[in-house]
Amino acid sequence: MSVATDVSAVDPDQRASLLNRMIVRPEIGAALGAVLVFVFFSVITDKFLSPLGVATWLDDASTLGIMAVAVSLLMIGGEFDLSAGVMTASTALVTALLSVEAGWNVWPALLVSLLFALAVGALNGWLVMRTELPSFIVTLGTFLALQGVNLGVTRLITGTVQVSGMRSASGYTSAGWVFASTTDIGDARIQASVVWWIVLTAVATLVLMRTRFGNWVFAVGGALPSARAVGVPAMRTKIVLFMTTAFAGWVVGSCNILRFASVQANQGVGLEFQYIIAAVVGGCLLTGGFGSVVGAAIGALIFGMARQGIVFARWDSDWFMLFLGVLLLAAVLVNNAFKKRAERVRR
Question: Which of 7, 236, 267, 320 has the fewest CB atoms within 10 Å of its CB?
Answer without folding.
Answer: 7
